[in-house]
């Protein structure tokens, strides 16, 4: 899942207030207004592609290449999502593309890692809240999970200075190994916190 590209694999500003846990507000986000359909379609399309790839690999065959027309449609949809994001949040094209990329990748990674994501109402609520958080900057019941994702995504992939440190001959092997362990521990810690926050969110909704 590539960062910064429309392949199946942060919001510019985090909300300062925290939404209370529980309640029925998650259900209200499951049905998004039509003007946010492009964000939902981007997520759904990438989830479908990820499932197709997973099914092909499980059957021991290479994934089918995306038809050229489908690729063009996906690119056009991605551009529409970026333009909508840019207009809604007053972001530059680069910032909007980063926000949309993070949004799509969060849902595709959640689909891979969270068993509850197979529950249709929870899945719809998670997608709806993520779109509302990304496209509108709303405070949502999954606020803690959204903020945990931003922390995790900021370290995935490695920031450039880490790559330079690992590849540079200016530091010795032991220091390079220590930096790698430090980065790995933070990465795993951020990912674990993100998944725990979503798990708590799902449990509060009866999972």
Task: Provide structural commentary.
The longest helix has 31 residues. The chain has 8 helices and no strands. It is mainly α. The N terminus is likely disordered. The two termini are 28 Å apart. Helix 2 packs across helix 3, helix 2 packs across helix 4 and helix 6 packs antiparallel against helix 8.
Give a summary of the structure in a few sentences:
The chain is an all-alpha fold and 207 residues long.
Which percent range describes the beta-strand content?
A: under 5%
Overall morphology: globular
- What characterizes the major β-sheet? none
Rg over C-alpha atoms, rounded to the nearest angstrom = 18 Å
Spell the H/E element sequence.
HHHHHHHH
Number of helices: 8
Structural class: mainly alpha
Task: Write down the oligomeric state.
Answer: single chain
Question: Kindly, what is the distance between the CA atoms of the first and last residues, rounded to a whole number of angstroms?
Answer: 28 Å
* Number of separate strands: 0
* Low-confidence parts: 1-27
Would you spell out the secondary-structure blueprint of this structure?
Blueprint: H1 25-30, H2 37-58, H3 68-89, H4 93-113, H5 120-136, H6 143-153, H7 160-167, H8 173-203
């Amino acid at each position: 899942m590539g960062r910064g590209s429309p392949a199946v694999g942060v919001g510019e500003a985090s909300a300062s207030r925290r939404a209370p846990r529980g309640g029925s507000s998650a259900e209200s986000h499951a049905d998004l207004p039509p003007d946010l359909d492009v964000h939902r379609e981007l997520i759904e399309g990438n989830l479908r592609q990820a499932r197709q790839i997973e099914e092909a690999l499980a059957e021991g065959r290479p994934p089918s290449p995306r038809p050229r027309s489908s690729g063009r449609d996906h690119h056009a949809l991605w551009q529409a999502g970026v333009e909508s994001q840019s207009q809604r949040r007053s972001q530059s094209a680069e910032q909007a593309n980063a926000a949309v990329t993070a949004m799509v990748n969060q849902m595709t990674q959640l689909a891979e890692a969270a068993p509850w994501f197979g529950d249709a109402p929870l899945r719809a609520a998670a997608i709806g809240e993520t779109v509302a958080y990304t496209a509108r900057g709303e405070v949502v019941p999954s606020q803690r999970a959204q903020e945990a994702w931003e922390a995790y995504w900021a370290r995935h992939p490695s920031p450039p200075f880490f790559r330079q440190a690992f590849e540079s001959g200016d530091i010795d092997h032991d220091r390079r190994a220590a930096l790698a362990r430090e980065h790995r521990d933070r990465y795993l810690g951020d990912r674990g916190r993100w998944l725990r926050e979503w798990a708590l969110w799902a449990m509060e909704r009866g999972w």
